[in-house]
Write a structure and sequence with these properties.
Blueprint (H helix, E strand, L loop, with lengths): L2 E7 L7 E7 L30 E2 L10 H14 L4 H22 L14 E6 L14 E6 L9 H8 L4 H14 L2 H12 L13 H13 L2 H8 L2 H11 L6 H8 L2 H9 L3 H4 L10 H19 L7 H11 L4 H15 L3 H18 L8 H9 L1 H23 L20
Parallel strand pairs: 3-4
Antiparallel strand pairs: 1-2, 4-5
Helix pairs in contact: 1-2, 1-3, 2-4, 2-8, 5-9, 12-14, 12-15, 13-14, 15-17
């Protein structure tokens, strides 16, 4: 609903003046969280980074058009008065990344924000018989521009300067295609965690997914390709993790990140670094998963002092959330899981004290660095101290049992026991 704010100002000396402000104001008092949208408009990318479409291209043919993608983005960068080196670097990066996205996820214009589609586009020309004098036998791509020709808009010179992708470029662009496959769900993860496509601060944990992807990506490309990237790493990461997928609808990217199926598919194709944090959930829901992890890791120590943990209600609630791919339908399930997770905060704080002691004894544990974990311990310092004392006592008892020969050896068997062959 649009609400128009009208302010009428009158005075003794001037005629009435009316000012009209057109804003979409959400109902923050009674509206559901799913209906509330951002009041402050989302930021847009510069025009040169808008998505160049290929009209009429068949599904699965985007890798055939890499050279044309490259030229189109080179023209866009040069038109924005970027240097020749930057224009070629960005154009090659965007060409591969976006072709990889489209090839993997079968993207269409319906998946994109119309305001972030370029006015210049490419047109797919289907293959025709060799006997047809109007075309060769191979499919091809030609340039077309909405509202302007290449000549009249001054683009013909940029097209000539772009040249074609050479042999030395193939490894680089192929690597970009590989990386482009994972950009949409990784951006979706970032949006769900931070409300941003990408954070430029390299030290923040909110960049965890992108950082993990880059570490694995380094192992998948040649030293020459990574050298070209590392020399312009800041620009490269901005183009890949911010600009390249920005035109895709945020709801589309978040739905990919929220899907358990996306995780399974990425694992299947070998992109474990992109899959490991999926399906993505809201930051608030992370607390429920933290509680479950604390209990899992401290169950044996608690049992040693007569504390039994029955976490089935919590784990079932978490599983219900992770099985729901639709972020809107997932929200009430997350709320239920959070209510369950908070039911025994004081008891969980005891378990967190145990885990803190274990982490200090064995090395750092990622859970103890989580915000939810730290807040729990700040809210229940006495219980945390109790947990540390329990862990210390159990640890000492185990040491004494081992030293005095009271430790019972374990039999560990994987699968069926081995049967010795008859002699």
């Amino acid at each position: 609903m649009k609400i128009y704010i009208v302010l009428t100002v009158t005075s003794m000396t001037t005629a009435a003046a009316t000012y009209k402000v057109d804003l979409v104001i959400p109902d923050l008092k009674n509206g559901s969280i799913e209906e509330i949208t951002a009041l402050v408009p989302a930021s847009y990318i510069p025009s040169e980074y808008k998505w160049v479409n290929i009209a009429d291209i068949p599904t699965g043919m985007h890798l055939k058009a890499l050279n044309s993608y490259y030229k189109a983005y080179y023209v866009a960068m040069k038109t924005a008065q970027k240097s020749d080196d930057d224009s070629k670097f960005i154009a090659k990066t965007l060409a591969g990344i976006r072709a990889g996205m489209q090839q993997a996820w079968a993207l269409t214009k319906d998946d994109m924000d119309p305001s972030e589609l370029a006015s210049g586009y490419l047109k797919w020309i289907a293959a025709k018989p060799v006997t047809d004098s109007s075309a060769g036998s191979a499919a091809s791509v030609e340039f077309a521009y909405t509202g302007a020709t290449a000549t009249s808009s001054g683009m013909s010179g940029h097209l000539a300067a772009a040249g074609d992708l050479g042999d030395s470029d193939k490894a680089y662009v192929t690597a970009m295609v590989l990386l482009g496959v994972v950009v949409p769900p990784v951006q979706g993860w970032s949006l769900m965690k931070t409300q941003h496509h990408f954070l430029s601060d390299a030290g923040t944990g909110a960049r965890a997914a992108q950082t993990a992807v880059m570490k694995q990506f380094k192992t998948k490309v040649t030293a020459e390709v990574y050298a070209a990237i590392s020399s312009r790493l800041t620009l490269f990461e901005d183009v890949v993790f911010h600009k390249s997928g920005h035109p895709l609808l945020m709801s589309y990217k978040m739905s990919l990140a929220a899907s358990k199926s996306t995780r399974e598919k990425l694992l299947k194709i070998g992109w474990g670094s992109a899959a490991i944090r999926l399906p993505a959930t809201s930051p608030d829901f992370e607390y429920a998963k933290i509680v479950a992890a604390i209990l899992t890791r401290t169950k044996n120590v608690l049992a040693a002092v007569g504390i039994t943990v029955v976490e089935k209600n919590l784990t079932d609630a978490i599983a219900a959330v992770l099985d729901q791919d639709d972020p809107k339908k997932r929200k009430p399930l997350e709320d239920t899981a959070l209510v369950i997770a908070h039911m025994e905060d004081a008891a969980v704080a005891i378990a967190s004290g145990i885990l803190s002691f274990i982490a200090e004894e064995t090395g750092s544990n990622t859970i103890v660095r989580a915000f939810g974990f730290k807040k729990l311990q700040a809210d229940y310092p006495t219980e945390v101290s109790t947990g540390r004392n329990i862990a210390r006592a159990v640890n000492q008892k185990n040491r004494d049992d081992i030293a005095e020969g009271r430790f019972q050896p374990l039999e560990i068997t994987f699968g069926a026991k081995r049967v010795e062959p008859a002699t």
